[in-house]
């Protein structure tokens, strides 16, 4: 594409060099630069892309977009000064890929918990309704039937545009994307045109990155603040901050709730481990998805599909055909009758919700064993809160490792243990090796007991000191059951 065309509608401060030249690709990592590429120098959390301008040129970049010009200009290169390189990257990406987000219906979902669930369920509902879509999620990216491994919940803006452009090319009409707080903060959604934006809930997470809860909340709110008046914003008004999210949005406001009046109102009539009977806007629907928090997720799916123009009855028929999302409340029953639940709960709120949901369903004649840990190099303040919740809401909590990353697993466990309330000191034990922890839970369990293995859900690895070792909770459970004959 010609640089002149690429710069269409993009504000610049100063240009040095020829703008009548061909751009082969846009890159924001000098290591990925090649012949005739345009390199955008972005300030990151560790380094500053401006330091790599010359390495990008050595690898073939001939256009540099930056906030400060270097001291000397290389021959045959064009330098473009902009106010904010990270935001400019979003606009360049949209122009380069032909503004795909304006051409298909882009739907974004933000919130602490439930984004993957809602986006995946939307993708599945729309498929049942006969529409092909794109999905951008923590678990995987999908373009119609094609599956691409996921690197980020919300990837960089070039990747998003590339996925959307490909989706458009193969005839998709919708795209569902998770919008993470890191994604908003790092301008990974800059230049995208959202038709509908959904909010699930906001509780404690990522305070390592955002520092305070208010900063975290305001980052999520920015997603709604920046929507145009042509968009629709759907919020959970049972959440304390559900209305705050939409306070300054220009978008048309819609709500969903179970406890208060809302445009999309839901009730949970019955729930067991096989599914739930719900009532949505006075119509009953049965689903194999279970857990009270999933009523909220399904209500948001219902609200979004309604705003896309589908009839309530056809949406509910599609909801009744949904399957569970990978690693979310997935159940396994052993030959001897031990019941396992594998779930991605990795925040205090998620762990509390899943334990509450299990406790509401179970008879209490069995025991509930909770095996969980906390990720290293992530929000440390979650740890004692998760320790407190797990020990108080289960018969036995087995504290173990999640992804320790660069941290010492024993130290993470100590921080989790510190949150256990004195009255629950006899209700927990700590086993650092995750496989050993699951093994102990199985040893301890009798038929009908429930073992919740939380925190890693769909993940098929355990990251220790920068190395990802293959580890899949479901596989480990099957392997141990086989060896232990239970
Ligand atoms: C903390 C964080 O989010 N970091 C993200 C960020 O990297 P960074 O700011 O550290 O980049 P940097 O190393 O400082 O480099 C700055 C710039 O210089 C460039 N550079 C760097 C070195 C070089 O030799 N040449 C060069 O050009 C880099 O490409 C970059 O553009 O920008 C990168 C490019 O987009 C991301 O890949 C990276 O995600 C890291 C890997 C990550 O782990 N992020 C997680 C925390 C994350 O984003 N998670 C959320 C989900 C959270 C949730 O569960 O809700 C997600 O959306 O996935
Ligand atoms: N609406 C909800 N409210 C509270 N907890 C939920 C909700 N939906 C899911 N959960 C819990 O949170 C866990 C993670 O769910 P999900 O993967 O859908 O969230 P996410 O927002 O995509 O998370 P991430 O930020 O890691 O991408 C689930 O396994 C479940 O335990
Ligand atoms: N997207 C989340 C996932 C956490 C999953 C948990 N297994 C962990 O590693 O902490 C994060 O990166 O914080
Ligand atoms: Mg997710």
From TrEMBL:
Positions with a binding annotation for ATP: 111-117
Keywords, ordered alphabetically: ATP-binding, Cell cycle, Cell division, Cell shape, Cell wall biogenesis/degradation, Cytoplasm, Ligase, Magnesium, Nucleotide-binding, Peptidoglycan synthesis
Record pathway: Cell wall biogenesis; peptidoglycan biosynthesis
Broad class of the protein's primary localization: cytoplasm
Places the protein is found: Cytoplasm
Domain Mur ligase C-terminal: from-to ranges: 327-457
Protein name (Swiss-Prot/TrEMBL): UDP-N-acetylmuramoyl-L-alanyl-D-glutamate--2,6-diaminopimelate ligase
Organism annotation: Halpernia frigidisoli
Classification of source organism: Bacteria, Pseudomonadati, Bacteroidota, Flavobacteriia, Flavobacteriales
Gene coding for it: murE
